[in-house]
Amino acid sequence: MTELLTAAQMRVIEQAAIDSGEVTGLELMERAGRGVVEAIFEEWPELAEEHHGLTPDLATDWGPTPEPLEAFNAEPRPLRAVVLCGPGNNGGDGFVVARVLKERGWAVEVFLYGNAEKLPPDARVNYERWSGLGGICHPWLSTIYDNDGDLRGKLFSADLTIDAVFGTGLSRDLGSVHADVWSAFDLDTGAICRLVAVDVPSGVCSDSGETLDIDCRATGVDEGLFAFQAELTVTFHRAKLGHHIAVGPALCGKVVVKDIGLPRVPAAPGICRAIGEPLAPWLRKSSTGHKFANGHALILTGGFGKTGAARLSARGALRVGAGLVTLGVPPSAQMEMASHITAPMMTRVEGAEGLKAVLEDVRLNALCLGPGMGQERARELVPVALAAKRATVLDADALSAFSDEPEALFAQLHEQCVLTPHGGEFVRLFPDIAAKLNEVPTKGPAYSKVDATREAAKRAGCVVLFKGPDTVIADPKGRCSVNSAHYDRAAPWLATAGSGDVLAGFITGLLARGFAPMQAAETAAWLHVECALEFGPGLIAEDLPEQLPAVFRKLGV
Ligand SMILES: NC(=O)C1=CN([C@@H]2O[C@H](COP(=O)(O)OP(=O)(O)OC[C@H]3O[C@@H](n4cnc5c(N)ncnc54)[C@H](O)[C@@H]3O)[C@@H](O)[C@H]2O)[C@@H](O)CC1
Ligand SMILES: Nc1ncnc2c1ncn2[C@@H]1O[C@H](COP(=O)(O)OP(=O)(O)O)[C@@H](O)[C@H]1O
Ligand SMILES: [K+]
């Protein structure tokens, strides 16, 4: 697992390194800027060839696009870059990038948003160094109003555009200055060729992955996403949370993390981690253990016509390695269930008394309630299940059943529980937290899905797994991780009915095997996405458990 940092955590790490005398801020900025150029050349090797233009033209560096015949006969022109620099250290990185490209023979235009006199010290040094190369630094606003520097034309004809306007320091709302920029240009940054964001696309809050809203009435700007749409984002030391949650991933394009020589991140409970490949030995079964040594899961089902969801969970629990799985079925669904199952077993569970009787078997060590269960049955059975103090997953109807009185549910939960809400279920259980999360942020750092999940876990007193392409998992002590289904792990085919039921089954199966709740939830979430990737497009929920053998083989289980 690698850390996903907030801006404040990154600043602490950077400051500690500077204070220790190991490195200066200026050196870090130089490494950051050079890291950006390195990542660009790795991404587009054709840009690394010095002095070779991609599309030759006859005019000066920034002339119009020539006719095809003229272009054919023309000498190669230098490659062109536009570098947009902001008022802080992100802008400082931009000046370094500009200088490095210029030294390699590129034609570089730098636009500064902000006052050169007020740049922070390291950024100021790099501004001076850039100016020493003869570069003109266009003040952004005068460019717009005088139409002097023709930023728009340059952006759309550049081979590369660097967004170094705001990085981790974006703190205020974007204000009227930025609104002017965007309205004057009606800038669709998605159409700009090779837009590379330094650290984070400007306008995206690096802690929350949210874009900061502006007051559209005050500025007269149409509503929209006030953030750059990058093709590549180059960040430093570690990825930030905003690269993996909310709309951040959609705006980052691809994320590359460059080492800038900072020491590893000290272990601290506040630091969130990205869930990575589980270790094979965790998932292996003991060569001598019998089936009961791998746990016995009980999955409660709904009534007639509503048993499919629980069967998906059961299949998931078995495939992930639970020794035995029993479906707890009401009388109305017994025939239906019997005609559908082979490896899972079934037992009759009529109501609260029925469940109490079944739970007298203490070998039933992991319970799953919710998938297809029906809210009425959930209201009756959840209290009995929770009173038995077994490892318990509550999903779907077992969560929605308590939307009128979430506090009653929280009072019964214990630390062996895992709640697995999707966005809708989260709102029902934690309406105030969801309201904070769904508020349109105007200031950074914005309240994030990580903040919301941590707060929910603390209130519930157990592990909460908040689903989505950016699944966030937290425990009551603040431990937190993100299972990112983005970039090379994008798994949009998981958005299919029943895939959440399989996830609940994976968690239940791992709990039965003795995994701790947080570890079960993290491992299951990672396996769930991996199964979707293994199958690929066309995936439906039934396919997910069937991919586990291949996934386990690849992991070396
Ligand atoms: N922290 C680190 O370890 C390193 C940071 N570096 C760079 O430094 C960046 C962070 O620098 P800063 O903290 O100076 O922050 P930024 O450069 O991201 O922006 C902060 C500046 O923008 C202003 N500002 C914030 N929101 C605004 C708004 N809505 N409208 C107008 N102005 C606004 C602030 O007053 C401040 O002047 C990183 O993203 C990274 O690019 C790198 O140089 C390498 C190392
Ligand atoms: N676009 C997506 N990319 C990756 N995973 C997704 C996406 N949409 C949904 N998921 C995952 O699919 C599962 C859906 O669960 P849920 O909404 O409970 O569905 P159901 O109730 O039909 O089983 C969750 O694990 C969620 O994280
Ligand atoms: K940026």
TrEMBL record:
YjeF N-terminal domain location: 10-268
Keyword NADP part of the UniProt annotation: yes
Catalytic activity: (6R)-NADHX = (6S)-NADHX; (6S)-NADPHX + ADP = AMP + phosphate + NADPH + H(+); (6S)-NADHX + ADP = AMP + phosphate + NADH + H(+); (6R)-NADPHX = (6S)-NADPHX
PROSITE patterns assigned to the protein according to its UniProt record, in alphabetical order: YJEF_C_2, YJEF_C_3, YJEF_N
Keyword Kinase part of the UniProt annotation: no
Gene3D superfamilies: 3.40.1190.20, YjeF N-terminal domain
Coiled coil: none
Binding site for AMP: K467, G468, P469, D470, T471, G500
Binding site for K(+): N90, D163, S202
Binding residue positions for (6S)-NADPHX: 89-93, 167-173, 199, 309, 372, 422, 501
Gene Ontology BP annotations: metabolite repair; nicotinamide nucleotide metabolic process
The protein's Enzyme Commission number: 4.2.1.136, 5.1.99.6
Domain of life: Bacteria
Domain YjeF C-terminal: 274-555
Record keywords: ATP-binding, Isomerase, Lyase, Metal-binding, Multifunctional enzyme, NAD, NADP, Nucleotide-binding, Potassium
Cofactor comment: Binds 1 potassium ion per subunit.
Function statement: Bifunctional enzyme that catalyzes the epimerization of the S- and R-forms of NAD(P)HX and the dehydration of the S-form of NAD(P)HX at the expense of ADP, which is converted to AMP. This allows the repair of both epimers of NAD(P)HX, a damaged form of NAD(P)H that is a result of enzymatic or heat-dependent hydration. Catalyzes the epimerization of the S- and R-forms of NAD(P)HX, a damaged form of NAD(P)H that is a result of enzymatic or heat-dependent hydration. This is a prerequisite for the S-specific NAD(P)H-hydrate dehydratase to allow the repair of both epimers of NAD(P)HX.
PANTHER family to which the protein is assigned, alphabetical: ATP-DEPENDENT (S)-NAD(P)H-HYDRATE DEHYDRATASE, ATP-DEPENDENT (S)-NAD(P)H-HYDRATE DEHYDRATASE FAMILY MEMBER
Family: Belongs to the NnrD/CARKD family.
Subunit description: Homotetramer.
Protein name: Bifunctional NAD(P)H-hydrate repair enzyme
Source organism: Falsiruegeria mediterranea M17
